[in-house]
Amino acid sequence: MNTQDNKTQEEKKQTTAGDNDKEITKSLAKVGKGASLLFIGTALGMVFGFLMRVVIARFYSVEDYGIFNLYYSFLLIFGSVGALGLRDGLNRYIGYYTGKKEEEKIASTIKWGITFGAISGIILGVVLILTSGYLAPILSEDPNFVFYLRIVGITTPFLVVFYVIISIFRGFERAKERIIFSSLGKQSLILIAVFVVGMLALPFEIVIIGVSLAVILITLSLYVYYRKKIKNFITKSANYFQNSQLGKNLLLFSLPLLLVSIMAKVMGYTDTLMLAYFETEAEVGLYNAAKPISRLIKTGLTVSIFIYQPLVSKLYAQKKYEENEVIYTSLAKWISFLTLPMALCFIFFPRVVLSVFGEGYGIAASTLQVLAIMYFIRNVAGPFHSTLIGYGKSKFVMYVNFTSAFLNVLANLILIPIYGVLGAAIATGVSITASTIIKSIKVYKLSGIHVLKPSIFKPVTFTSIIAIVITLIIRRLLIINIFTLGFIFIFFILIFFSMMVLSNSISKYDINVIVLIEKKTGLDLKRFKNLLEKFS
Fold it and tell me: What's the DSSP call for residue 173?
């Protein structure tokens, strides 16, 4: 009898383990599919954004390029602040209530989110318009900067609503809308506007107007799309004024994330604003040639957490902590795979990369190297920010970001007067690295999740060492330009993948995802799968 009971219990354990493996594989495949599409869309969007900056740099002066970056920084800052932290709060609650299967709460939460975002955007835009006359002289000697800030004020409510609607679709674990309207739609419209204005040799002021009109147009298009599609996800209507507690919960959870957003923008744009104060527009232009390029390294992390954050909220609601640990570690590993080859190119060949802006931008080579190292370290740590949000730790994230922002301002105050553009890069690196360490420790204390594992550090270390040797040889044999750098980039990818295989860094879940892709696409991946199985 006992033997029979033991067999039954063992079978139940095996069934449970098998179900967990299927759940993890399905979740990884969902994140992988969304990340793959987002990677392509985001890469194209970044190319559009990068070309937009190149067009401005080519058609207008370095000073104009610096002014544009000040305008664009204000637009993004006010758009993020106006969103009240709803960009993370909305998708977290939608994912959480989805895990709890509470559809009426999802409907009410969405309505409250749009209401809060619209009101906040309008108020913030009006405040900026009224105070533009006082702010402009502090930041720029250009007399037209008052007009540019007022354009930002008009555009802010539209950008806030844009962010909120994208977050709603994100909560349903959908990447399609982000790709179509944000990565491709918004960025391509801005590029077209800038290119047309430049080709027609119109005044620089028209560039600013064109960019804002592009943002307004894509927001109106997204809203029309949202009104048609939201009925596919929510079948139950909700009178959100009768569910004021849900709105209160959303706001109280999101407001700390507002401060998180503010602090993130402070860390992201303090360097630009303080360079504008201590140095000239030319230095601002140089720095904002290196920084957008270095931020390409974040692409792998950005596209992965877009689907991961609502997913981890759902897993948290269902108390599936072990599944999340496996997903977290796998994501950290594949994010490293996506971004290390690019980071190595930026670190070893910075002048070649910066040459796309023009000959004068090579001065910022050291700046690009520092930023590339910092962003890669951030990537290797994995999606700790999204995990903390999913676990409901928005206040802790707020405190850490506030501390990091303060550190960023202090470091910029000390380093920019001494080192200029390079000082701004070092200050950014110090603050983001400090935030990474603190948040990673918190995730470990909450869940036991960490990335200090051989499956991640072995391939990263071996690839870096080999890349250094190869770079020393290549520099003696070849003249490096953008064309040859493309081949070097591909070679670094092959090296890293080889190191992952040879160091036994491929897990059974990675192979399961490949099997799932094979079934859904009809592709014959048998040889590739067999190769990985030999080393897993």
Answer: T
